[in-house]
Amino acid sequence: MRLTTYTSWLAGLSLLIGVSMNGNATEVAGIKFDETAQVANTELKLNGAGIRYKAIFKVYVAGLYLKEKKTAVKDILSSEGTRRVTIVMLRDLSSEDFSRGFMQGIQKNTEKAEKVKLTSQFLRLGELFASIPELKKGDVMTNDWVPGVGTVFTLNGKKLGEPYPDVLFYNALLRIWLGESPVDSGLKKAMLGESESRSLLH
Predict the structure, then answer these.
(1) For residue 181, is it left (φ>0), alpha (ψ between -120 and 50) or beta?
(2) Distance between CA atoms of 32 and 64, rounded to whole angstroms?
């Protein structure tokens, strides 16, 4: 009886928060994230995944993949190993609005000297977003750091442009979600594997 009650309570909590475990996948807002991902012949583990809210609206879900799970932002940023952020859209959004969110996150979490150094790559990023008229509900974007290659963007499995060579650029992207002023503090905790639902459901 106690087991049944506990299981029911977990199921209710998962529905409330929007995160559940199902076999070898983590489900967030109805989107399944595999527990592992192959990126450039490297197996990565799902570090954490959560929902990006804007006001009361769910915009997208994002998952962070690393070679080894980490809970400290400094450890994630200091690693030059292969990494991935997977974003799945939960609503239609213009590329202008999507890129504005990216650039605001970079602006708030990147030091001035680093911004100057990465100016040309940020300009290229703006051009990349401008080439995408709209992001549709269900679209999947990945942002990968591949040592020796750079930052690689894909949309629905299709590569977007050429790699961005500097690891500082990728870390600037990561700080959109993991920086001192993240776009969503709840999503930051989830990507770091700190969400209450993940700890209860593992």
Answers:
(1) beta
(2) 13
> For 132-160, how does the pLDDT look when each residue is reduced to its tens digit (9 = 90+)?
989 999 999 999 999 999 999 999 999 99
Distance in angstroms (rounded) separating the CA atoms of residues 6 and 138: 33
Q: Which residue has the tokens 């709840």?
A: 186
Residue whose structure tokens are 């969110």: 101
Provide the residue ranges of all domains of the chain, joining segments of one domain with +: 37-197
| Strand ranges in 55-148 using DSSP code E only, listed in sequence order | 57-66, 83-89, 93-94, 134-135, 140-146
Domain 37-197: give its CATH code. Answer: 3.50.70.10
Using a 10 angstrom Cβ sphere, with 0-12 exposed, 13-18 middle and 19 or more buried, the burial of residue 2 is exposed
pTM of the prediction?
0.85
